[in-house]
Amino acid sequence: MLTGHASTFPKRRGGRPFPPWKSPVARLGLFRSFLRRLKDAGSDHVLILVDEFENTVLGTGPSGLQRLTHFFRQLIDHLQSDFDLPKVQIVLSVTADAAKRIKPGQDSQALTRSGKVPAAVQAFQERLGETVYVPPLELDSALDIAKFRIESVEGGDRDPARPYIPFERTAVELAFGASNRLVRVFCVLLEAMYEKAYTTKAPLVTTELAREVLRARGLEARPRS
Predict the structure, then answer these.
(1) What's the confidence (pLDDT) of residue 12?
(2) What is the distance of C-alpha 48 from the center of its chain?
(3) Disulfide check for 210: which of 2, 140, 162, 174 has CB 3.0–4.6 Å away?
(4) Please, what are the domains in the chain?
(5) What is the pTM assigned to this prediction?
(6) What percent of the chain stands above pLDDT 70?
């Protein structure tokens, strides 16, 4: 839809020109139009996951954070008042440090050096739901995730004595050990091991194959409990 240039829409002949992409009003209007299309298509409930939001929060200064929170505040207000839109829940996935910048606790450092929270940021904070902190991944949970992902690809009718086939259990444990207990990293490593087995036509993701994948990524290849 866009040209790849951050400030312009594609040019078209005749008719009214598109609004400038740099305009916050235009961006918000475009997003609302997108949500209306979803509602017209039959989607009454929409979940929006903004992943790695810390890159935006930690990479912007106080003025940028104010503009960002102002956009979200306006969006939340429109979602609550516009009945032509589906019911939308927005989840901001961030690191703990970034979460404290967006919504500091009573004992946390304020968002600005002066110690005063800008009105736009404060208004945004008042519209946020409860902050949920996800604990580090444990091995039992990692094995459950691996089993679920394997079943979704390979099918659910499986030998209960060999629940991780085409992975050896040790290969799954190696992926967990190199994941720094992060779900995203763990899943990426599982997929890399599966892809390696597929491209080399290996019947199993063996311990040695798993170690080879981890070595290629410069990761430590040892199981963790």
Answers:
(1) 54
(2) 9
(3) 174
(4) 24-126 (no CATH), 139-216 (1.10.8)
(5) 0.59
(6) 78
* Amino acid making up residue 94: V
Residues 64, 13: Cα–Cα separation, whole Å: 35
Site of tokens 């839809």: 1
For residue 52, the 8-state DSSP code is T
The 3-class secondary structure across 11-35, one letter per residue, is CCCCCCCCCCCCCHHHHHHHHHHHH
Helix residue ranges per DSSP H, the chain: 24-40, 54-58, 62-81, 96-102, 119-126, 139-154, 169-177, 183-199, 207-216
DSSP annotation of 88 reads E
Residue 52: CB atoms within 10 Å: 12
Q: Take residue 62 and report the two structure tokens written for it.
A: 């106080």
* Alpha carbon distance 192, 16 (integer Å): 48
CB 46 within 8 A of CB 32: no
